[in-house]
Design brief:
The structure is a single chain. The mean pLDDT is about 90. By secondary structure, the chain is α+β, with helices and mostly antiparallel strands. The relative contact order is 0.23. The chain is about 40% helix and about 25% strand. The protein has four helices and eight strands. The strands form two sheets. It has a four-stranded antiparallel sheet. It has a four-stranded antiparallel sheet with strand order 2-7-4-5. The chain starts with 8 loop residues before the first helix and ends with a helix.
């Protein structure tokens, strides 16, 4: 379901911008099976995976949620925190024990506003993540529903 990500934090943000972001990190742990967030709830934090696997999923009425992508070390969990109305568009679950860095979204948005270069770099990173996740969601939904449509 997942291929190595070209958008891991170390590959995208400069050392300076990465350091600035990481200075506001808080270490957290999630047990296997823990819900990190659900679609429709307030997006007031985001995470960078240190170890373990997080699965992003989209709810499907009358069915189990459809997994979209598995995220591993260095990958961003969550993008909805950057865009008003700050509500999660997907769900996320720890598939294994997960260690992560957690960030307060309000604090990071204020840092982005105060430093345009940092804000631009972080915004471009989140945009790249969003574009990749949109493509992966499209592909996953086609894999899930196209065989049914072809059989109709």
């Amino acid at each position: 379901m997942s291929t190595p990500s070209p958008i891991r934090i170390a590959a995208v943000l400069s050392t300076e911008h990465r350091g600035r972001l990481m200075s506001h990190a808080r270490e957290v742990n999630f047990q296997e099976g823990a819900r990190i967030f659900d679609e429709g709830t307030r997006a007031d934090s985001f995470w960078i995976v240190r170890s373990g696997t997080v699965t992003l999923e989209i709810p499907v009425p009358g069915r189990r949620p459809t997994p979209i992508e598995s995220l591993g070390p260095g990958e961003l969990v969550g993008w909805s925190w950057l865009f008003a109305p700050y509500v999660w568009q997907l769900g996320a679950e720890a598939m294994t024990p997960v260690r992560a860095y957690e960030f307060d979204a309000t604090t990071v948005r204020m840092l982005m506003d105060a430093d345009p270069a940092f804000g631009s770099a972080l915004g471009h990173w989140v945009g790249r993540v969003l574009a990749l996740r949109l493509q992966q969601t499209r592909t996953r939904l086609m894999d899930t529903y196209a065989p049914r449509l072809a059989a109709s």
